[in-house]
Amino acid sequence: MKNGEPIRWGILACGGIAEKFADDLAYVKDGFLAAVSSRSLEKAQQFAANYGPEVKAYGSYEAMLSSGEIDVVYIASPHGLHHEHTLMCLNAGIPVLCEKAFAINSKQVSEMIQTAKDKKIYLMEALWTRFHPSMAKLLEILNSGVIGDVVHLMADFGFRAEYIPEARWFNPVLTGGSLLDIGIYPLFISRLVLGNPKEIKASATFAPTGVDMNCSMIATYESGATATLFSTFAANTDTTCTIYGTKGKILIHSRFHETKGITLEVEGQRPEFFETERLGWGYSYEAEAVQADLRAGKLENDWISHQHSIEIMGLLDEIRKQIGLKYPNE
C-alpha cells in the first residue's frame, strides 16, 4: 500500500457473499477490487469478468497472495476454513478482513489473533452490521436515555433453507448450523446494546446431519436486563430486533442486521420513524473502516476489536457446549 494511492482489495473464495462485497466496493472511496481467487481458475475468471478487465483472476489463493497486486484481502470462504485461510494470508504478509463467524472455536481465534500480533499485521472480523449508519442511530437513541433503562431485548434471524445434507448450511464438515451462520447476529446486537451476559442458556433442535436447525438463547445481564435470541433454518422469521425500556421501546426493522429504518416509541408520544442509509448491500461501510485503519497504521479496529471477536466466539463456544454441537474438524 503506497501513500496517496487507492487501496487494492483481493477476495479469497468466490461465493455469494464475495459477490455482494465486490458489488459494494463500487461505493468505497479510495479503494477498489484488484484481484479475486478461487481453487478453480475458471470460476475466478467468471467472477472477475463481472467487475471489469482490470480485475485479475487467480486459480489458487497462494498465487493471489504472492502476486504483489493486493494490499488487503477479504476472506469469503465458509467459516470452517477461516482459520486456515487467515493464517495463510497473515503468513503471506497481507492484512485480513475475515467474514464472520471468525472461526470454529476460541482456540482457532486465539491463534489467528496471536499470529496477527506477532507479525504486526492487521486483522478484523467482518461483522459488517456494526458499521451500518443504522447502528450509529440506534446508539444515539439509546444514549439519549429516551426509552429509560433497557429491560429486555428480543432478536431473531431465520429463513427457510432447502434441506440438502451436503450444502454448507447443513454439512457438519463445513461447520453448518444456524448458530454460527446467522445466530451470531442476534448475539451481536444483544452484546452491542447490553454488553456481555453474566449468564446464557441455550437449547436447540437438530437437522438429520447433526447440526442445529433451531437455536434459542436466553441471556441475563448485570444490569438486570434479559434477552431472548433465536436463529433457524426452518422458517422465515421476522428478523427484527425490539429493545424494551422503562419509558418506551425501539424496533429495528427487518432485516435488523442490514436495516434501513428504526421506529422509536416513547410512552405518551407518537411513534417516530428514522430512515437510515444503506448503500448497496451494506458492505462498503466495513471496507471503508478497514481502509481508514490501514491508513492510520492500526493493527485492529476499535469497534470490532480482537477482544470483541474473542468474546463473541467465547459465547458461541458456550452455546455449542450447552446444545451438544461439536464439529468433526475440531
UniProtKB/TrEMBL annotation:
One Pfam family cited in the UniProt record for this chain: GFO_IDH_MocA
Record-linked InterPro entries: Gfo/Idh/MocA-like_OxRdtase_N, Gfo/Idh/MocA_domain, GFO_IDH_MocA-like_dom, NAD(P)-bd_dom_sf
Record domain GFO/IDH/MocA-like oxidoreductase: where: 136-250
Keywords: Oxidoreductase
Gene Ontology MF: a single term: nucleotide binding
Residue span(s) of domain Gfo/Idh/MocA-like oxidoreductase N-terminal: 7-124
Leader sequence segment: none
Family: Belongs to the Gfo/Idh/MocA family.
Full protein name: Gfo/Idh/MocA family oxidoreductase
Species this protein is from: Sandaracinomonas limnophila
